[in-house]
Each structure stands twice: as C-alpha cells, then as structure tokens.
Design brief:
Order of helices and strands: HHHHH
CATH class of the largest domain: Mainly Alpha
CATH superfamily of the largest domain: Electron transport complex subunit B, putative Fe-S cluster
Largest sheet: none
Shape: flat
Distance between the termini: 80 Å
Structural class: mainly alpha
Radius of gyration: 29 Å
CATH architecture of the largest domain: Orthogonal Bundle
Helix content: 40-55%
C-alpha cells in the first residue's frame, strides 16, 4: 500500500511542478494583443481571400490597428462600407476608394496574337511552358 501512495505522491508532485513551470513560462512570454484588432476583424467580411495584400482578415485587422492612417489599406471584398466601419472602430477616417474591376485584354484568337516563333521540341506542355513563355506575341500573357 505504501508503494502505491509513494507513486501517486511522486506523480502528483511532478504534475504540480510541471504545471507551475508552465504557468510561469506562460506569464513570462505572454503576448499582449490590442483588443481593437478583434473588433476590426469582426467588422471584416471574413473571406480570407488575400485581396488586400495580407494573408487573411486577421493580419489585415492587425495592420489596420497598427497603422497611423488607413491610407493604402483597403478591403476589396467589403468595399467602402467595411472600411468605414473599420475607421469608426479605430477613430479614423477611411480614404475614399474606387472599386476595381478586372479587365480581360486578351482576345485569345490567333488573329489577335501573331506567332513569333515555332516550337520544335518535346511534346509536353509542362516542359514547353518551363522552357519559354510561348510562341505568340501576346503582351498580356
């Protein structure tokens, strides 16, 4: 019976010591976050698309909170309404942005993209694409 109590007491002491060490380390290396970042993130559309230039909405929210002004920061998914809400949370004014629209400039036909060279090599698209940019003069890709 005393062997069992010794084992339980030893494991309990190890567990309590480990918990104390983890608590102290956690308090020492704690990262303070601005609570406004979470409010800004809730105001964003949560698309995590990266259209703003950041990996996701959380990174964009942190950048908005750290920035002195919102110039150069824009959420293309949420638009002006979302940026107005973000500016209200941060006590700033949102810059007026215009909506960007994608334009396809390539017509895609052989008449509109003349051939510049003739490829004579391996009949594999992956290899051909890695070797050179293509055989047409399309300046848009």
């Amino acid at each position: 019976m005393s062997v069992l109590l010794t084992a339980v007491a030893t494991l309990g002491a190890i567990g309590a010591g480990s918990a104390a060490i983890l608590f102290l380390v956690g308090q020492r290396f704690k990262v303070e976050e601005d609570p406004r970042a979470e409010e800004v993130q809730e105001a964003l559309p949560a698309a995590n698309c990266g259209g703003c230039g950041f990996p996701g909405c959380a990174s964009f929210a942190v950048a908005c909170v750290k920035a002195e002004t919102l110039d150069g920061l824009n959420c293309p998914v949420g638009g002006q309404e979302t940026m107005d809400r973000v500016a209200t949370i941060l006590g700033q004014t949102a810059p007026v942005t215009t909506k960007k629209i994608a334009v396809v400039r390539c017509e895609g036909t052989c008449d509109n993209r003349p051939r510049l060279n003739q490829y004579d090599g391996v009949s594999n698209c992956a290899i051909a694409a890695a070797l050179y940019g293509g055989d047409t003069g399309c300046s848009f890709g």
